[in-house]
Specification:
Length: 260
Amino acid sequence: MSYNNILVEENHGITTITINRPNKLNALNKETIEELHEAFKDEEEDDDTKVVILTGSGEKAFVAGADISEFANFDVNEGTKLAAKGQEMLFDFVENFSKPVIAAVNGFALGGGLELAMACHFRIASDNAKMGLPEVSLGVIPGYGGTQRLPQLVGKGRAMEMILTAGMIDANQALNYGLVNHVVPQEELIPLCEKIANKIANNSLVAISSAIRAINANFEDGVNGYDVEIEEFGNCFGTDDFTEGTTAFLKKRKANFPGR
Ligand code: COA
């Protein structure tokens, strides 16, 4: 499939999706959101893809936000639809993706860009990265899950300060907040993401999908995460990966998971 705004590259089970609008600091316009949705849908069905790395092109930005030029004239109805559609089509889709998604935050991650990074399963940043939710400086609030995911990740007080000041934090402060897991020089960012992705890809991807669902259940309204964990745990016992993993351990050999 060919896209206008993103690049998709698969290499030994690791698929890198790069948002490719460097002249607009990779701002998320409608078409980019749709293309990202299509690409993630394809990767979900592609058995060759074990882990996805999501990043931005160029050295300056991961994503500098939703494309302001597209919504500057919206009314209440259009604004509501923009948030609802975007959340469903991309942000919730990525959060609930059955394969791990790592955000490689290679520069500015602002507004919808930080929201997209937060929808990923975890984040690794280059040392030039800057993160923030500047929406209130534009007279609007985060609409792609930022008011919910930022407090989940950094705590309510820090999220309040970031959102209400509209300020940016640098990569080290993001590390200190637990918003990113590692900070490395820019040239080491993708290699580190790939190293971690390879480590993940050696494990049972069936069990990994179960773990993602169980962890996400902790943050879903009206869902008892412990009950989801029990169910997902039990289901693992019916998989070939479980048979292979336990047999390999007992026979003191490396597991070769069939992925079912
Ligand atoms: N939407 C649309 N266009 C954007 C954008 C966004 N969120 N962020 C950057 N761009 C565009 C700029 O308009 C500019 O385009 P132009 O060259 O056609 O004028 C280009 O990307 C480069 O950005 P520029 O502002 O010139 O770069 P800078 O280095 O001076 O500043 C930022 C970088 C990130 C501080 C600045 O671009 C910015 O504040 N962006 C908006 C961030 C934001 O509020 N995001 C939340 C949106 S809800």
